[in-house]
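Schema walk-through. Below, the input block comes first and the output block second. Nothing else is stored per chain. Lengths vary across the set, and this one has 360 residues.
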Amino acid sequence: MPGVRASSVAAVNQADAFVTSGHSVQLTAKRASATGSSITHYYMIGDGLRILRLPVPATRGREFAYTAQVVSHLLMHHGAVDLVYSRHPFTALAAVAIGLPVVLELHNPPTNAVRRVLERLVESDRLLRMIFISEALHRLWRDRRYPVSKEVQVEPSAAPARLVAQVPVPAQGREVRNALYVGSFYRGRGIDLILDVASATPEMTFRLVGGRRDTAPSTPPNVAFHGQVPPSAVAQHYRWSDVVLMPYGRNVETAQGHNDTSAWMSPLKLFEYMATGRPILASDHPVLHEVLTDGDTAFFAPPDDPAAWIAALKSLMESPESAWHVGRNARQRLTERHTWELRAERCLAGLQCGANRASP
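--- output ---
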């Protein structure tokens, strides 16, 4: 941290939302080799979040080195900590071992090593709650009989409420001519599909924000690459766009090396897209229907099917009123259910930790 990976962006925004909810929060994270601008400017967050960035060696055992530093810090400040909110099972186990209550957020099925950690973790009454990012992940966890806490909650990812203010809703009936993709270029993210679609729709302009240009194949003239940008710089690209693209393939790879997360994912871009008020064109993965409704808050097309995507985009170009209504509906659903601020309140609802309010 800082960094453009979804895990980094999500952790900062969730912690900042806890601060907005009235909690005193310190976020611990791995320190990036180059810091660049300040954390608050980089992520466009308030100045109330305290961040401890820990150096981690790029060697085998780095996760244990990171956990050891976090636990050392918790021991030094034990009396001031009411709650540890973590996405890191090893840290969660260490925290309960020194007597601290924990909420653990889960984004993937466990490896064998993590499963052994979880088996010990769920035995502790100090594990107050497990939070899953999708009902599909919770269901998979249950079906495979992975260890679970007594209290379980499903909370999809979210977007910051400030993004709604930064990106005005487009004018009703505005032509659909500018298509935007924001995200990484890992395998299964649909970059090849976008390029195929762009070649067949020269009347549209396509902008890709994120990833590296040299990882993409030959580029049609109506496609522009803008590289990786900090979260604070994304809003200008959303304002330019008329439609936002989420062209996941049948198999979706992540930065952490998980080979296929398509069955249980909860992508940050989905919620940021909703905040913009632009119509979303997404690959039709069942897990996305936990949040989006076809024809009401998004449009869906089959994964890895350029012809279907071309037809869907041409339909949007021919029906700008329909596109506008769907974008507006998605934005409304985001503001009612899926901001980081609302998520923060739900994640900690009902928890009693120490003499004060829960302070992650």
